[in-house]
Design a protein that fits this description.
It comes from Methylophaga frappieri (strain ATCC BAA-2434 / DSM 25690 / JAM7). It holds the Pfam family DUF525. This is Protein ApaG. It is elongated, with a radius of gyration of 16 Å. The model has no long low-confidence stretch (mean pLDDT about 95). It has one domain: ApaG domain (Immunoglobulin-like). The strands form two sheets. Strands 3, 4, 5, 7 and 8 form a five-stranded antiparallel sheet that branches. Strands 1-2-6 form a three-stranded antiparallel sheet, with no helix packed on it. It is an all-beta fold and about 130 residues long. It contains no helices and eight strands.
């Protein structure tokens, strides 16, 4: 039986920020826009985030923090919250994955896994 109370859907869109990157100095900046949607039955608040960012060379960084972009969005069923943030890599390709910690109105904490997504500089055509 599936628990339908705590269901959060996460959608991700990434963008390479060419104007703010400097490949000659191994600096590649990527924006990511995330939409979090409560597809469950109980309202919930996002408490914290955890990210594992892996560069193309296998170097990993971990980032943990309170809320997202300075906010703790509260989502009633069917509501969504969208935000944009950024990650700097020292390689032109990498990936991110993570987890949100949520608290529902029944006082239950639960984790929302954020599946791995790719950060990649577009290939230049010659």
């Amino acid at each position: 039986m599936t628990d339908e109370s705590n269901q959060i859907r996460v959608a991700v869109k990434t963008t390479y920020l060419e104007s703010e990157s400097d490949p000659a100095r191994s600096r590649y900046l990527f924006a990511y826009t995330i939409t979090i949607e409560n597809v469950g039955l109980i309202p919930a608040r996002l408490l914290s985030r955890y990210w594992k960012i892996t560069g193309g060379d296998g170097h990993e960084q971990e980032v943990e923090g309170d809320g997202v972009v300075g906010q703790h969005p509260y989502l009633a069923p069917t509501e969504q919250f969208t935000y944009t943030s950024a990650a700097m890599l020292d390689t032109p390709v990498g990936m991110m994955q993570g987890q949100y910690t949520m608290l529902n109105d029944d006082g239950v904490r639960f984790a929302v896994d954020i599946p791995a997504f790719t950060l990649a500089m577009p290939q230049t055509l010659h």
